[in-house]
Design brief:
The chain has 127 residues and is of the alpha+beta class. 16% of the residues lie in helices and 64% in strands.
């Protein structure tokens, strides 16, 4: 009986924390990430090489509340090369042609509640 009370208190504490401050559980790109009232930004560096490189970003998920913004920009620059925003249920693959250089893939969440699966890679066309 004590164990159930302790588990109920822990669950209530996690719920109250998630409602007040936001919570993200998971690790991209290997697993889906579950969000509860989460606002934040994750920046991932990426090196593009080759003759005709491109950056491929795949996102899929369902946000019952809030939005996800994907931004691709050259490392060290403030202006974005590509910005896409997602809400509700989505599944998208973005191929953005780039030059050989360092880039940053930025995932920005605003008040997100739901789950998202994200994956990104730098590749090159071999024709």
């Amino acid at each position: 009986m004590r164990t159930l009370i302790v588990l109920a208190l822990v669950a209530a504490g996690v719920y109250l924390y998630a409602e007040r401050f936001g919570l993200a559980v998971g690790y991209a790109p290997f697993t889906p990430v579950f969000y509860w009232n989460y606002s934040g930004e994750a920046v991932y560096p990426l090196r593009a090489t080759g003759i005709r490189p491109f950056i491929k970003v795949m996102v899929a998920g369902e946000l019952r509340k809030g939005s996800l913004e994907v931004e691709i920009r050259r490392s060290g620059q403030a202006t974005a090369g590509l910005v896409k925003r997602y809400q509700g249920r989505f599944s998208d693959e973005v191929r953005y042609p780039v030059e050989s250089s360092l880039y940053e893939v930025v995932f920005r969440l605003k008040g997100a509640r739901g789950q998202v699966r994200m994956d990104w890679v730098a590749a090159r066309n071999e024709f």
